[in-house]
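Case study 2.
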Amino acid sequence: MEILITARALCRIRGSLLILSAVALGVVAMASGSAGAVPEEPPDEYQVKAAFLFNFAKLVEWPAELSGAPNGPVTVCILGLDPFGRSLADTLSGRSIGGRPLVVRHIANMKQVSGCQILFIGSDENKRSHPLLPELGIPGILTIGESDAPDGGGVIINFRLDSGKVRFDINLDAADHEKLRISSRLLSLAHLVQSNRK
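Prediction:
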């Protein structure tokens, strides 16, 4: 028996086949996507702190005479043990502030702070370094720490965990001592601002 198919019918069949193929491909893609998809993990504590640190650098103003070479890097120094792993280097990689690249440098003690614009003091180092902070002798360093002490261990910005969330406090007196200007935007984000200003 011979089957005759008109041109119009042939076009309809081809159109239906194309639609079915597209639907089938879509279903396969969705199935493979959902089966292979790995839920994205929330950032860990030090990924969050690394992101904060970058934003601190953008929202703090150094006096021109204390900011280092105009075209030189903004150096973030980590004192002692580095709790960030790759988080800080990855966060700062390729980024700049005012055309100045951000670089990470590791230092072993407070005698090596020369050339640092930002100094991070982790919880492991805080007890050893706290007494030395007032005697840094080099103004213009943004000190950041993670201390449980009421005064934040003497640093300008102190991280702390509050119900599993990373918060930070700002000590304006310490910032004044270092001749740094903290933007009002950053102050508004702080959990606590300490100051004896009148």
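The chain has two domains: 1-38, 45-194.
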